[in-house]
Design brief:
248 residues, mainly alpha, Serine Threonine Protein Phosphatase 5, Tetratricopeptide repeat, 2 domains, 46% helix, elongated
């Protein structure tokens, strides 16, 4: 099994449906994959927003185990995500059944900045940990090198979130280092991540950088120097303008 599969981050978007009414569910998931808010509304709420289609609920999962909110977050359909949260009553912290990940986990790892901001505005739990390794959304963004998502999450999170720990003690910096995400390593350092913390195995970010799968790909002998030297890069371009109060 590939590492990405084991961590629950890469999911096929094949529309395959099982159940008593496969045709109806297939039409529903086709609308979800297209981000067709009108048809999603019709299935979930009915013609007059008070007559939902029997069997179609926000708990229904596609063939890959993702509920509607999660699938929309993976694909990046912002308007449909907003509809689910603002009108259809979706739980922003709903967990999918396979890896116990939230929509925020998936939006963060995919780099969908607008979805991340939208989920934050509706109260997404940034400390939500999945069932794979206790990874938070910030760990996922660091693993896949989503620098702008990293900045947005840290702008919304309480102090100390930059060094949030997973089950085995890994920080987001350790994840970025292990996977060879050089830009994310430098960004996290610039935003205050600790170089000296170690995980449950006693490994710090340096050790993980030199022994992870990204080392051979990127020649990360230089990574050790980068981790030990204070960063001087300017990441101000990533910083978002402050959103108006209540702006969803």
């Amino acid at each position: 099994m590939a590492a990405s599969d084991a961590e629950g981050y890469e999911r096929s978007s094949t529309v395959v449906v099982s159940g008593p009414d496969r045709e109806k569910e297939s039409h529903y998931w086709a609308a979800v994959y297209e981000g067709d808010t009108d048809f999603i509304r019709l299935f979930l709420l009915g013609d007059d927003d008070n007559d939902p289609e029997p069997g179609i609920t926000l708990e229904l999962e596609d063939a890959r185990g993702l509920p509607t909110l999660h699938r929309l977050a993976v694909i990046g359909h912002q308007a449909a995500v907003h509809f689910l949260l603002a009108t259809a009553g979706a739980d922003v912290n709903q967990r999918e059944s396979t890896y116990s990940q939230t929509a925020m986990h998936l939006a963060a790892v995919k780099g969908h900045v607008e979805i991340v901001e939208l989920l934050c505005a509706f109260g997404a739990d940034l400390h939500a940990r999945d069932a794979v390794g206790g990874w938070t959304p910030l760990h996922g963004a660091a693993r896949t090198g989503q620098d702008e998502v990293i900045v947005r999450l840290l702008a919304r999170a309480p102090a100390g979130y930059v060094d949030v720990r997973a089950t085995r003690g890994d920080t987001p910096l350790m994840r970025a280092a292990y996977w060879g995400r050089v830009s994310s390593v430098r960004l996290l350092l610039a935003l205050g991540a600790s170089r000296t913390l170690t995980n449950a195995e006693g490994h710090d970010a340096n050790a993980l950088a030199c022994n992870g799968p990204g080392a051979d790909l990127l020649g990360l002998g230089d990574m050790r120097v980068d981790l030990l030297r204070p960063p001087n890069a300017d990441f101000s371009a990533y910083l978002p303008a402050r959103a108006p109060d209540g702006g969803v």
